[in-house]
Design brief:
CATH class: Alpha Beta
Protein name: Universal stress protein
Subcellular location: Cytoplasm
Distance between the termini: 23 Å
Organism: Desulforamulus hydrothermalis Lam5 = DSM 18033
Number of helices: 5
Keywords: Cytoplasm
Strand content: 15-25%
Bound molecules: adenosine-5'-diphosphate, magnesium ion
Domain UspA: 1-145
CATH architecture: 3-Layer(aba) Sandwich
Oligomer: single chain
């Protein structure tokens, strides 16, 4: 039933917990997992700034992408000892939009993510990414609290 599972990860404990659920499920269902990280776009004013800032921005973007890839690579260790097919995907953009687009364009049939992430705001059950993804996804969504 669920053969392609998308697991968006932001480095938070809740997302890691979501991944452990995904790994158990994928092992039972012989599903394939994609670990996805979205580097949030920089604020627009940075893009229109003078050249000097343009260069600094390029360096920051490269560093953020590298950091994101390292983050995803660390999770691969959770797959040792089973033979689940896993790959990683990293992109820059608005996290919820990128997750929704990836799931739709590549026909994922389940998204598993945390209810909250790295966000600071306390007191809400859901963060903005989990909220938007659950409302607009093209496939079922499993939200881990
Ligand atoms: N930049 C991101 N890249 C990939 N996944 C993300 C990203 N941000 C959030 N997520 C996913 O969405 C879940 C909920 O995070 P979010 O809605 O941002 O809550 P919060 O407001 O607490 O940060 C996370 O546990 C993670 O699974
Ligand atoms: Mg967040």
């Amino acid at each position: 039933m669920y053969k392609k599972i998308l697991v968006p990860l932001d480095g938070s404990e809740r997302a890691r917990k979501a991944l452990s659920h995904a790994v158990e499920l994928a092992a039972k269902l012989a599903a394939k997992i994609t670990l996805m990280h979205v580097v949030p776009s920089l604020p627009p004013y940075v893009n229109t700034a003078v050249d000097r800032l343009g260069q600094a921005q390029q360096a920051i973007v490269e560093e953020l992408m590298k950091n994101g890839q390292e983050l995803l690579d660390q999770y691969i260790s959770m797959f040792s000892g089973n033979n689940i097919a896993v790959d990683t995907f990293i992109v820059m953009g608005q996290p919820a939009d990128e997750i929704l687009e990836k799931a739709r364009a590549e026909n994922y049939d389940l998204i598993i993510l945390g209810s909250r992430g790295l966000g600071e705001i306390k007191g809400y059950l859901m963060g903005s990414v989990s909220n938007r993804v659950s409302r607009h996804a093209s496939c079922p969504v499993l939200i881990i609290r």
